[in-house]
Amino acid sequence: MYLLIFVLSLLFLQQEQLQIENAWIRPSSKGMNSALYFDVKNNGDDPLTLYKVESDVAKLVQIHETYKNGDKMGMRKVESVTIKPKSTFKFKPGRHHVMLIRVKEDLKVGSEYDAAFFFKNLPEIKIKVPVKKAN
Amino acid sequence: MFTYFIISNLSETLSPKSILISILLFFLFLSLNGCGSRFPESKEFIKSYALLNQDSSKVVFPNDFKNKIVVMGFMFTNCPDVCPLTTNKMRLIQEKVKDEGLEDIEFAELSFDPMRDKPWVLKKYAEIRDLDMHNFQFLTGEDEQIKSILKRVNVVAYAEDTTYTDEGEPIYFFMHTDRIILIDREGNIRKEYPGSHIDINEITEDIKHL
Q: A30 Cβ partners below 8 Å, 6+ apart?
């Protein structure tokens, strides 16, 4: 009973401390790659560190950063992303994103997939993410 | 003031008709120079290239696009982030020029990853994005043809970041120039833009001036 209250309290505090908003996935065809974008809102007084994202929609799921080198663009895997207190970090096109490598089916506009976000010292957060056409 | 001084002195020696013609020629010169500065270059392709489009149809580039304005991007289908941005920008340009009633404009994206981007792969890439393909093509071809075009348009692309699946399959990504180019009706490259964050209004205005 006390354990249940403890876990529920943790979840409630987590929800207060951070939110994952505006999540979406790019359309892609089976066997290719896609990207998951979202905003992480840190309402707390401590930094948050996202170190892993999981989803069954792809063979590999990695946190990546797109970077500029002169007039060239490249990507690199990053091990974690730290979100400062009282701030929102945007995983958006042309910047940080979660790469979905070798998706297992066609990702069509309108469909939804599960994704789990792992932050240090916090329970995982699971959400459903829609596939959307870019604006 | 300077112009007035010149004109007032000239009027003592030249006829009114001569002065009027000079003024008209002066403003004509100014307007032509204004048009010229919009397009900092004019570069020929020099030769033609044998390519395939997403339907596996042969395309002779740029010859098959003669008498059309071409908006051309560069991409690879395994790119999850920047290249889809470029493709989306081209889609937005396509919609804008259509809304403005501009005609004889073609859109082409060339893959710099011909080893993986076979025609059917490009076709799926286009289909899943629900692109309007009536004036849009994705191009691929022999490695040497692709390299030759990239060299001509100053686009660099090389494999860099590589990751591996659990089965040991290497999946590589390209470091590449982020570019869209504008080609005129004679097949000359007239302007370059940043591909993934091109100003839609700027290129639309440029198209109107070609």
A: A103, A104, A105, A106
> Token pair of B150, please?
């990239």
- CA B27 to chain CA mean position, Å: 31
Say how far apart CA A46 and CA B118 lie, in whole Å: 49
Query: B174 and B81 share a domain?
Result: yes
Does residue A135 lie in a domain region? no
Chain A residues whose beta carbon lies within 8 Å of the beta carbon of residue B77:
32
CATH number of domain containing A60: 2.60.40.1890
- Indicate the pTM of the whole model: 0.84
pLDDT per position as a tens digit, A87-108:
999 999 999 999 999 999 999 9
Contact assignment for A102 to B165 by CB distance below 8 Å: yes
Q: Which of A:92-111 have CB within 8 Å of B?
A: 93-94, 97, 99-102, 106-109
**B21 and B105, same domain (yes or no):** no
Are the beta carbons of A27 and B165 separated by less than 8 Å?
A: no
A69 touches chain B (CB under 8 A): yes
Output the domain CATH number for residue B75. Answer: 3.40.30.10
Number of domains in chain A: 1
| ipTM of the shown complex | 0.86
Residues of the domain holding B28? 2-38
Distance of CA B71 to the CA centre of its chain: 4
